[in-house]
Amino acid sequence: MSLVIVAGAGPGLGSALLSRFAEGDYTAVGFARTATQRGPFDIRQVDLTDSQRVTTAVSALMEAHGPPKIVIHNPAGLLIGPLMETTQDDFENCWRAVALSAFILAQAVVKPMADNGGGAFIVSGATASLRGGARFAAFASAKFALRGLTQSLAREYQPLGVHVAHVILDGIIDSDRSRAWHSLDPTRMMKPEDIAEVYWQLAHQPRSTWTQEVDLRPHSEGF
Amino acid sequence: MSLVIVAGAGPGLGSALLSRFAEGDYTAVGFARTATQRGPFDIRQVDLTDSQRVTTAVSALMEAHGPPKIVIHNPAGLLIGPLMETTQDDFENCWRAVALSAFILAQAVVKPMADNGGGAFIVSGATASLRGGARFAAFASAKFALRGLTQSLAREYQPLGVHVAHVILDGIIDSDRSRAWHSLDPTRMMKPEDIAEVYWQLAHQPRSTWTQEVDLRPHSEGF
Amino acid sequence: MSLVIVAGAGPGLGSALLSRFAEGDYTAVGFARTATQRGPFDIRQVDLTDSQRVTTAVSALMEAHGPPKIVIHNPAGLLIGPLMETTQDDFENCWRAVALSAFILAQAVVKPMADNGGGAFIVSGATASLRGGARFAAFASAKFALRGLTQSLAREYQPLGVHVAHVILDGIIDSDRSRAWHSLDPTRMMKPEDIAEVYWQLAHQPRSTWTQEVDLRPHSEGF
Amino acid sequence: MSLVIVAGAGPGLGSALLSRFAEGDYTAVGFARTATQRGPFDIRQVDLTDSQRVTTAVSALMEAHGPPKIVIHNPAGLLIGPLMETTQDDFENCWRAVALSAFILAQAVVKPMADNGGGAFIVSGATASLRGGARFAAFASAKFALRGLTQSLAREYQPLGVHVAHVILDGIIDSDRSRAWHSLDPTRMMKPEDIAEVYWQLAHQPRSTWTQEVDLRPHSEGF
Questions:
Q1: A183-187, B78-82, B88-92: range with lowest mean pLDDT
Q2: pLDDT surpasses 90 at B57
Q3: Which residues contact C210 (CB under 8 A, 6 or more apart)?
Q4: Which residues of C fall within a CB distance of 8 Å from D159?
Q5: What is the value of pTM for the model shown?
Q6: Alpha-carbon gap, residue D78 to D99, rounded angstroms
Q7: CB contact (8 A) between residue A209 and residue B194
């Protein structure tokens, strides 16, 4: 069975991704800040901003399963606030969680993937990947950074067989937490399992038709 | 069986789309400039730039099958040449084939689709939809026009249930004709059936996750 | 004195452009649908969608003044309305006014400009050049078409010495008419003379630093 | 005399900016990593990635001159290399030099500027601000981050009177260093003084017409 790593395997989209790929006969392993038991999933506690920890976790997996076929970068990191209430630590930690973590992850996996016949590296973007809104100084800057990195990875590694895709998630993902926070009709939220299906499709695009960027939003979402 | 209309049903991608949706249990009907027999497909001769002809053809189909569930806009229209060798007729005909035809088609179908529970309207874009290159005055202008129209349709009709998606085809589509024209390794071309699969996926995205724009290119294509 | 042609020389921005370049010691000539007397300006009645009329008008000017140094494409053409209330004539006329007119104008001037040492061809874009909003099917499609054409012109003619610039006017231009139509505080509108100053600056950029696209909006405008 | 701060006041564009604003009757002060004497300019040694140092330097200037009218963010930071030869320190230092420094600078100046009647905060972007090329993992990611931050600043502070502009420098800036590195005809490079003129123009745009983003490239540059 091929290995898929979901880095940022929180409840919600993270779990839905693990679930989708497990159903599709992958060995699905999650990395998360806290390794709580969640159903049947193999979720390992890995601080994605710590390259030592990421390398160790990836090496252990590769020893057992060989290089991953699919790697998904999906940590959270949303931070909203006025410029003058955003500390330098906020700004830096947001970038570490969102962008540096992708660099560390890519360095740990893309070469073994390329050497092993290729695969897919899929990144979760957001509305803020394309538009720096007021009060999004930290988060938009971090998500822009992630998008720039993703494009560079695509241009360097796609010719070597690693498909790199960036998914713009332009809406609220349905979860207990987002239902509590937003007074939004749940039918106007994106279902984690519907998003996961798109990642599944991207991960299996044939080499003749690779997507670099795709957006997703609820049909009722203004944009 | 639900109806799918492929407007611009030439050999290559047009046929692959008809084929994919027919396999998926749709009544698949093509509109093409010339209605040559091509395998098992129901291809009707319709000049897509003639609103009278389009309306008549769509009405006939709706009488037999009800409003379409899926409509795909996929006419050709590539035109390359220096500005001073592009006649006003060239410029105008390119826009008619590429952009006006989409307006005419949309006016014929999106309201019945919205009134009938929704559906998907999918449009074939190109590299020239995003970048006006030298010698592409006519074609880039027409493809930009098509993209602007598509965005407007999405914003007006998605809240009414009609998903509007724009596919950036950033590469050469494999066909006998393109093999003859381009000295390009066929493994570096997009396979029509691979593209058709993406249209199929877009057409069936659940309302929680609709794509407005997606790009596709061969893994080896520079961009 | 060098010649500047302002195609689309209505009151408001058109007049401000004529005024700014006349002050700067250009022979400033306007083309407008109706050649009403407006102050000191030389405004000629030219239907910009009629290539015969444009060619004749440009030839007459070139005979008297030589090829223009600066050409500005600035016709109006705003059209807003739901898809189903936009007729095919509306859609087509909007494109003719906005995009075809630029093609015709470019064909009449860019080669003589290139052969005569170069110059600048500056185009007025709008918010709808970048975003196809609901109810903007015709106008956004036409403005997108204009932008694609402009990019192609830039890539073909800048190496030959003709600077091609596209100005995104993202806001309401202050005028008697717009004050009557919009219940907007005039301090939140763009002053025609402030816009004209930017066109002046673009027209005189040295070859080492040419702008292809610039946006302008009132400081209070959301975006 | 009003104060302008040029953060990133190296030879080349930095000096040209100091020069242009000094000529225009500003008190022009540069921040640079190393405070070598360069002609008549007041250049202070400030590590832009050290918020303590930046705050101290800005406070000293404000005490003497009041809040700055114009602040320009222009540090270097170019880094090119394959992903696997880019260390985590490279990636992080590039982001610190390019993006974090802008956050620190903005926090030090935009509120006093807004409280003091407004001003302009102008940021130097690059080709890599819009496109993540192969071998640009660090630099493109950092420049994307800077652009996202700049957009957020514009949307938060323009309504408060601080104009925030992002300049895409799409080409090689002429300098002794770039002449030595690139085998490029100097007539195909951007002159620092021509770029500086654009910053001057942006800094003085009236509130009715503010530019958020503008690109600049030599007329001969492909794009």
A1: A183-187
A2: yes
A3: C158, C163, C165, D216, D217, D218, D219
A4: 219-220
A5: 0.97
A6: 12
A7: yes
Contact A145 D150 (CB under 8 A): no
Which of A83, A106, A144 has the CB atom closest to D156's CB atom?
A83
CB A217 within 8 A of CB A184: no
Burial of residue C179 (CB within 10 Å: 0-12, 13-18, 19+) is: middle
State the chains in contact with C (3 or more Cβ–Cβ pairs under 8 Å): B, D
Give the gap in angstroms from C-alpha B203 to the nearest C-alpha of chain C: 21
How far is Cα C20 from Cα C22, in angstroms, rounded to an integer?
Answer: 6
pLDDT band at C157 (very low <50, low <70, confident <90, very high): very high
Task: Provide the mean pLDDT of chain D.
Answer: 95
As a whole number, mean pLDDT of residues D102-119 equals 98
Chain D residues 140-169 with CB within 8 Å of chain C: 155, 158-159, 161, 163
- Beta-carbon separation of B163 and A205 below 8 A: no
Shortest Cα–Cα distance, B180 to chain A (Å): 19
CB-based contact B218 A208, cutoff 8 Å: yes
The answer, yes or no, to whether residue C198 has pLDDT greater than 70, is: yes
Are the beta carbons of B149 and C143 separated by less than 8 Å? no
In this complex, the residue of D104, D141, D154 whose CB is nearest that of residue A99 is: D141
Give tens-digit pLDDT for A75-117.
988 999 999 999 999 999 999 999 999 999 999 999 999 999 9
Query: C77: phi > 0 → left, psi -120 to 50 → alpha, else beta; which?
Result: left
| Cα-based distances in Å from C201 to A118, C167, C210, D205 | 51, 12, 10, 11
Mean pLDDT of C140-144: 98
The packing angle between helices C101-115 and B137-157, to 10°, is 150
The count of other CB atoms within 10 Å of the CB of residue B102 is 27
pLDDT confidence tier of residue A182, bands split at 50, 70 and 90: confident
Q: Is D212 on the interface with C (CB under 8 A)?
A: yes
CB proximity C47 to D under 8 Å? no
- Partners of D100 on chain A (C-beta within 8 Å) are 88, 91-92, 95
Query: What secondary structure does DSSP assign to C57-111, as a single string?
Result: HHHHHHHHH-S-SEEEE---------GGG--HHHHHHHHIIIIIHHHHHHHHHHH
From C152's Cα to the closest Cα of chain B, the distance in A is 4
Give the residue ranges of DSSP H helices in chain C.
13-23, 51-65, 88-95, 101-115, 137-157, 176-181, 192-203
Residue C207: Cβ-neighbour burial (10 angstroms; 0-12, 13-18, 19+): middle
How much is the mean pLDDT over chain C? Answer: 95
User: Which DSSP string do the residues of D119-170 spell out, in sequence order?
Assistant: EEEEEEEEGGGT---TTBHHHHHHHHHHHHHHHHHHHHHGGGTEEEEEEEE-
Mutate which of B51, B115, B149 to disrupt the C interface (most C C-beta within 10 Å)? B149
On the question of pLDDT at B35 being above 80, the answer is: no
Residues of A in contact with D149 (CB under 8 A): 132, 137, 140-141, 144
Residue D37 has pLDDT above 70, yes or no: no
What is the tens place of the pLDDT at every residue in D137-160? 999 999 999 999 999 999 999 999
> Given A158, A205, A216, which is nearest B209 (Cβ)?
A216
Position D179 scores a pLDDT of: 87
Q: Residue D166: closest CA among chain C residues belongs to which residue? A: C214
CA B139/CA B177 separation, integer angstroms: 19
Mean pLDDT (chain A) is 95
Which is it for strands C3-7 and B213-216: parallel, antiparallel or unpaired?
Answer: unpaired
What average pLDDT score do residues D81-108 get?
A: 98
Q: What is the pLDDT of residues C88-116, one digit of tens each?
A: 999 999 999 999 999 999 999 999 999 99
Calculate how close chain B gets to C108, using CA atoms only, in Å.
9
